[in-house]
From TrEMBL:
InterPro entries named in the record: 2-thiour_desulf (IPR007553)
Name of the protein in question: DUF523 domain-containing protein
Any matching Pfam family: 2-thiour_desulf
Length: 166
């Protein structure tokens, strides 16, 4: 019986030091998902070949540029494709990603001016994961993710129970 759901999780939120500044961004509420989820840690930026630490980058239109003007779009796109491969490999239907990130941000990301101004949009990995049908949540939406996964697991358990009763 399926008791836990595999979920892609931004590695920095789990305490891995993989952010652009070489630090982690552990989000304590994420610890609440371990009872119902098998976290699959990913860092699309590292998967795309970028070093840690690395210069800050933001999305400008369809490009991802560093603060000093280098175009790192290709690395971000490669990392996004690798994140999708990981989701496929582990059967992930959900992702819990770092908000505002040029790769993981979902719904709002920094606008490319390096002034901490937000705009509507998705990071490269979040956008590609969504296009593949994966439900993407940010860390502030952890409780909503837990509720959705709990409902999915309960439906699965109920259907298994009905099959066993027949």
């Amino acid at each position: 019986m399926k008791e836990k759901e595999a979920v892609l999780v931004s590695a920095c939120l789990l305490g891995f030091c993989c952010r652009y500044d070489g630090k982690e961004k552990h989000y304590p509420d994420i610890d609440n998902i371990f009872e119902i989820c098998h976290p699959v840690p990913i860092c699309p930026e590292q998967l795309g070949g970028l070093a840690t630490p690395r210069p800050p980058a933001e999305r400008t239109g369809d490009r991802v540029m560093t603060e000093n003007g280098a175009d790192v779009t290709e690395a971000y796109e490669k990392g996004a494709k690798e994140a999708v491969k990981a989701a496929d490999l582990y059967g992930c239907r959900f992702a819990l990603l770092k908000e505002k990130s040029p790769s993981c941000g979902s719904g709002k990301i920094y606008d490319g001016t390096f002034t901490r101004t937000l705009r509507e949009g998705d990071g490269t990995a979040a956008r590609l994961l969504k296009a593949k049908g994966i439900r993407v949540y940010g860390e502030s939406q952890t409780e909503a993710l837990i509720k959705e996964i709990t409902a999915v697991l309960n439906c699965y358990k109920l259907s298994q129970q009905k099959e066993n009763d027949q």
